[in-house]
Design brief:
Elements lengths: L12 E11 L5 E10 L2 E10 L7 H11 L7 E7 L4 H5 L31 H15 L4 E5 L6 E9 L4 H11 L5 E5 L6 H7 L3 E8 L5 H21 L13 E4 L2 E4 L5 E5 L9 E2 L4 E6 L6 E6 L4 E7 L2 E3 L6 E5 L3 E4 L2
Parallel strand pairs: 3-4, 3-5, 5-8, 6-7, 7-9
Antiparallel strand pairs: 1-2, 2-4, 6-8, 6-15, 9-18, 10-17, 11-13, 11-16, 12-15, 13-14, 15-17
Helix pairs in contact: 1-6
């Protein structure tokens, strides 16, 4: 149900509203859409943000599936979601907004339209970040930022900002463990949605589960995994009835190493989706890059350390310096029990 604003959504119902952003040079208007599920009873507010960067579209389907699984009559509290936080970047499947070449997930809380006149650059991206801040982050008690690196990458990890105080960090770890995958605790970049939420006294973390080039089977699995994780978080904070199903233990990563091709060509992986979360040894062959015209081997991509594999690259073209694989170093691994 389309409504004018969030205040028009009554307890026990759901709806969405749209905020005008601008008119593009083509004359086409652009807006951001916010979905609200208002529970029949009072309780915490959960904010979901997707596609602050215009790559990794599976997070949009994950938000849709999460919302579809929530019955307002059974909900205590409110769910607010923005499935496409940066429609300008999504239109072009770009990490940054084409108009100003800025990454929204480094710009939170953004800047309101009234203050943009004094800014040198970044007006459009900052304005869209401001809308997400105002309508999702500020009302929320818990903020979950769903985003992916690229459609060519498959990954399963939860980003836990170390900027949280020890008490909040413990609670964030606990809630994040419900997604049943590797937790990566690190100093997340300032200006990200999760870090800003934490600075405002809220619980915040990033969910990076999925990929776009691995077929319908993995995609369905990743969507179900996120739905179950968000559902578990809502149970853990009292928004939904039931046992959240705490895992016995999960793996924490504090040190990571990236493997990127130095040369472009055609990438053929030696590991697949089934290897995500598996341990690899130093020297393990992860993928090969071939010359697209001569078919000569250009480069082998091997693990530089012992550790846990949590980002993989799909079959297809690659550019020099593209994301390839990410390994959590063994000395940076430890077991976390919720």
């Amino acid at each position: 149900m389309r409504v004018a604003s969030a205040s028009d959504i009554r307890p026990g119902t759901r709806g969405f509203f749209q905020i005008p952003v601008c008119t593009m040079s083509s004359g086409i208007p652009m807006h951001q859409t916010f979905h609200v599920i208002r529970g029949a009873r009072e309780g915490p507010t959960l904010g979901l943000i997707s596609n602050s960067r215009g790559i990794g579209h599976l997070s949009i389907e994950q938000v849709r599936a999460v919302l579809a699984a929530v019955d307002p009559a059974e909900l205590s509290g409110t769910v607010i979601a923005c499935p496409v936080a940066n429609p300008a970047a999504f239109e072009h499947r770009r990490l940054t907004t084409p108009v100003d070449e800025l990454n929204m997930n480094r710009l939170f809380p953004g800047t309101s339209a009234e203050r943009l006149g004094g800014r040198y650059a970044g007006g459009l991206t900052e304005l869209m970040a401001h809308h997400v801040t105002r309508h999702v982050i500020e009302p929320a008690d818990i903020v979950i930022d769903l985003h992916l690196l690229s459609d060519r990458l498959g990954l399963e990890t939860i980003d836990l900002p170390t900027q949280a105080g020890e008490g909040a960090r413990a609670r964030i770890r606990q809630l994040a463990s419900l997604f049943g995958t590797t937790l990566h605790e690190w100093e997340v970049e300032e200006g990200s949605a999760a870090v800003y939420a934490i600075a405002r006294g809220k619980l915040g973390f990033g969910v990076e589960i999925g990929g776009g080039a691995f077929g319908p089977g993995p995609a369905a699995k990743w969507v179900a995994q996120v739905v179950a994780g968000v559902h578990g978080v809502m149970q853990a904070v009292g928004m939904l009835a039931g046992d959240p199903g705490w895992p016995a233990a999960v793996t924490m990563v504090t040190t990571r190493v990236g493997v990127r091709p130095r040369n472009g060509g055609y990438h053929v992986p030696e590991v697949g989706v089934e290897h995500l979360g598996a341990t690899v040894e130093t020297g393990r062959l992860l993928g090969r890059v071939y010359d697209v015209q001569t078919f000569e081997l250009v480069e082998e991509l091997r693990s530089p350390c012992d550790g846990l594999l949590y980002v993989i690259r799909a079959l297809g073209p690659t550019e020099p310096g593209d994301w390839g694989y990410v390994i959590g170093e063994r000395q940076g691994l430890w077991t976390y029990t919720p």
